[in-house]
Design a protein that fits this description.
single chain; about 475 residues; mainly alpha; two-stranded parallel sheet; disordered N terminus; binds arginine
Length: about 475
């Protein structure tokens, strides 16, 4: 119950009392907050071009089917183009009272052309209208993500070819494992981003059906031609079920899922760049173009772009989760909950575009430090596997036994405080008398890398071949 004080009653004699806790700014009880929670125009204005494109296709179909007159359709199309011009010139006044982009556009259309504007919404509902607009928008986002990832792959392949023979340590558990090359490492990401593009393309194929004409949910009694509008808007076909058409957003979910997986790839690479740029690693250097300084520590050169790419992954994965959770309990068909599909999708799309572009920039910018990489590759007895393999090949020793033998050699090297390749022949002989001078040939990191010629392996000749093949497959 409202508490009556002389102060409030003096100020608003007949007004409905506002909520004592949060109602201070409200003049008309629930109406203001209702408008606020209901309106989507602040974000769905981003759909203006798709909304107008869809309306033009709809109007032209209505005329072709003699549902409205050709004269009215002409006026509608002309008026819609003018509305688009106004929006693009920044002269359009968006109104919250008109709720969303659909009603903002239609209301302005009727100001411009008058009565015929009222015929545009024949055989249509905002439910199929928004399903169409959003699908068109996501389709473009998918296509733009594909182009951006192709550019990132180009940057990676160029750099990989330049460094096909640049030795670096390969890690497992972030422990020195076996020598590899910088080019081979970058080509691993080319594969990942290639699969990401494959997922986007798969999503696009399923997405590319036109929901327009499903109307509110059940279809319409007007003799519309859904095949015509589908074709006009670049879809492969109309959607088959009107209920499904207005009530699912799986096309956006698939895009967000593909973007999330790709963002995970970007984030892992970003994390490697952060590690590689540290004073302890110094594997690569980013120029001033992709680093920032510290306001207190003059020596700092921080890989902020990489850190932010890593963080953007969190936002993108968050958007996927947000929309999954919005959708998971909705009964068919449309529910206003689905208006909440747009903000996370827009935000994730922006974040993804930024992250991919920043990563491509960093790849083009980064200079691997070949001397440091080689020295790091030689540390940690990274050619111990090569020693074991040599024993198998040259001495006919079973691999398990050879592994043991190489382990004893590593232990001796550690006792002597040298790397495996720095031991003398006498040292090796003390481990096993059968070892000959020929063993030294396989213990250098260059030999180790070059020897891994198995398909998909690290050998520089392989990497160059892979790079060429990837260019052909992806670019
Ligand atoms: N702004 C709405 C949305 O984004 C448009 C559809 C409104 N439909 C309705 N039945 N109220 O979902």
């Amino acid at each position: 119950m409202a508490r009556k004080t002389s102060k409030t009653s003096a100020r608003s004699a007949n007004a409905r009392p506002a909520n004592a806790l949060w109602g201070g700014r409200f003049s008309g009880g629930m109406a203001a907050i209702m408008e606020q929670i209901n309106a989507s125009i602040d974000f769905d204005r981003r759909l203006y071009a798709e909304d107008i494109q869809g309306s033009i296709a709809h109007a032209e179909m209505l005329a072709a089917q003699s549902i409205i007159s050709k004269v009215d359709a002409k006026a509608i199309v002309k008026g819609l183009k003018r509305v688009q011009g106004e929006i693009e010139a920044g002269r359009f006044k968006f109104s919250r009272a008109l709720e969303d982009i659909h009603m903002n556009v239609e209301s302005r259309l009727s100001e411009i052309i008058g009565k015929p504007a009222g015929r545009l919404h024949t055989a249509r509902s905002r439910n199929d209208q928004v399903a169409l607009d959003f699908r068109l928008w996501v389709r473009r986002a998918v296509d733009e993500a594909d182009v951006a990832l192709a550019d990132l792959q180009t940057a990676l392949i160029d750099k990989a070819e330049a460094h096909a023979g640049t030795i670096m340590p390969g890690f497992t558990h972030l422990q020195s494992a076996q020598p590899t090359t910088f080019g081979h490492h970058l080509m691993a990401y080319v594969e990942m981003f290639g699969r990401d593009r494959g997922r986007l393309r798969d999503a696009r194929r399923r997405l590319n059906e036109c929901p327009l004409g499903a109307a509110a949910l059940a279809g319409t009694s007007f003799p519309i031609d859904r095949h015509r509008t589908a074709k006009a808007l670049g879809f492969d076909r109309p959607t088959a079920n009107s209920l499904d058409s207005v009530s699912d957003r799986d096309f956006a979910l698939e895009f967000l899922a593909a973007a999330s997986i790709s963002a995970v790839h970007l984030s892992r690479f970003a994390e490697e760049i952060v590690i590689w740029c540290s004073a302890q690693f110094r594997f690569v250097k980013l120029s001033d173009a992709f680093t920032t300084g510290s306001s207190i520590m003059p020596q700092k050169r921080n890989p902020d772009a990489a850190e932010l790419v890593r963080a953007k992954a969190g936002r993108i994965i968050g958007a996927l989760n947000a929309l999954l959770i919005v959708m998971k309990g909705l009964p068919l068909t449309y529910g206003k909950d689905m208006q909440e599909d747009k903000e996370p999708t827009f935000d994730a799309t922006d974040a993804f575009a930024l992250a991919v572009a920043a990563m491509a920039g960093m790849v083009r910018d980064m200079q691997p430090n070949a001397a440091v990489l080689r020295a790091a590759a030689a540390q940690g007895h990274a050619t111990a596997t090569d020693l074991a393999d040599w024993c198998v090949r040259s001495l006919g020793i079973p691999f398990r036994e050879a592994h043991h033998l190489a382990g004893r050699a590593v232990r001796l090297a550690e006792q002597k405080g040298v790397d495996l390749a720095e031991m003398t022949l006498a040292d090796f002989r003390s481990v096993d008398r059968r070892i000959t001078r020929a063993v030294f040939k396989v213990l250098t990191v260059e030999r180790s890398a070059a020897s891994r010629t198995s398909y998909g392996g690290t050998a520089p000749a392989n990497v160059r071949r892979q790079a060429k093949a990837a260019r052909k497959a992806w670019l």
